[in-house]
Write a structure and sequence with these properties.
This protein is of the alpha/beta class and 268 residues long. The protein is built from nine helices and ten strands. The protein has one domain: Divalent-metal-dependent TIM barrel enzymes (TIM Barrel). The radius of gyration is 17 Å and the shape is globular. This is Sugar phosphate isomerase/epimerase.
């Protein structure tokens, strides 16, 4: 690996291309590993297929994103606990140390009521994994704002053993990303690297193209004692060609590496 903190490519970053394309691009560009977004692509759900891709391209799976999106509510099972358990099994089989988890949706009442205790129970069965709960954001529709997560979009208000900090989500929620990292403290286990303008929607821009302190956050990780990984999670669905998508992912990797290896103000 070319930096102390591994830089991963999320398979969501190549959408609408499929999971296998992420491994191909990660290998070509020199990423340290892959974050698998488990979704409707059957390959993303299949440990054997993923291991085959990892071996073929020489790019390990180092993080698994549990199927928590609206479009993945029926992946594996309609039961959110079963989906989380299956994601944990997938990560355990692939020796990926991190499972990214979203807070429950408000309509998942039973799941939300027992989420903290249930997460502890699953973590107790998979002791080698970190279940990193991700910060989300309020949703704005028709001029109104509502929070579709329970008990809320900010997991630090509840408190969990591990967190994922998503910079694009910080932009969408008008949250100070550095202050959120401070609140997460040593429980910060994973970073989703993507930028945003703060215009109230989740943009996942290439880092440096929005207004988030992406570089400052990355430069601060060493001083925070960070031992996790950084996953590039950017939207390239508007790319007019594979070459444009590849250029965006190369730029994102170079941004991450440059800032992860740069000294923080404390170190300088």
């Amino acid at each position: 690996m070319t930096s102390r903190v591994p830089v991963l490519l999320s398979t969501s970053s190549v959408f609408p291309e499929r999971t296998a394309a992420a491994f191909q691009l990660a290998a070509a560009l020199g990423y340290d590993g892959i974050e698998v977004m488990v979704w409707t692509d059957a390959v993303s759900q299949d440990a054997g297929a993923l291991r085959g891709l990892a071996d073929h391209y020489g790019v390990p799976v180092l993080s698994v994103h549990a199927p928590c999106l609206l479009v993945t509510q029926r992946v594996w099972s309609p039961d959110p606990w079963e989906r989380l358990r299956r994601a944990a099994e997938l990560a355990d089989t692939l020796e990926a140390p991190t499972v990214v988890v979203h807070p429950p949706f408000t309509w998942q009442r039973d799941y939300a009521r027992t989420f903290a205790a249930g997460l502890d129970e699953v973590a107790g069965r998979f002791t080698g994994l970190r279940f990193a709960v991700e910060n989300m954001y309020p949703v704005r529709m028709a001029g109104r704002q509502f929070v579709p997560y329970a008990p809320g979009w900010d997991p630090t208000e509840t408190g969990y053993p591990s967190y994922t900090l998503d910079l694009s989500h910080c932009a969408a929620s008008h949250t100070d990303a550095l202050a959120m990292a401070d609140r997460m403290g040593p429980a910060l286990a994973h970073v989703h690297l993507g930028d945003g303008t703060g215009e109230g929607r989740d943009e996942h821009l290439v880092p440096g193209r929005g207004g988030q302190p992406c570089g400052e956050l990355l430069r601060s990780l060493a001083g925070r004692g960070f031992t996790g990984s950084v996953a590039v999670e950017v939207t390239t669905r508007g790319a007019k060609s594979r070459a444009v998508r590849e250029a965006d992912l190369r730029e994102s990797l170079e941004f991450a590496r440059a800032n992860l290896t740069a000294p923080s103000p404390v170190d300088a």
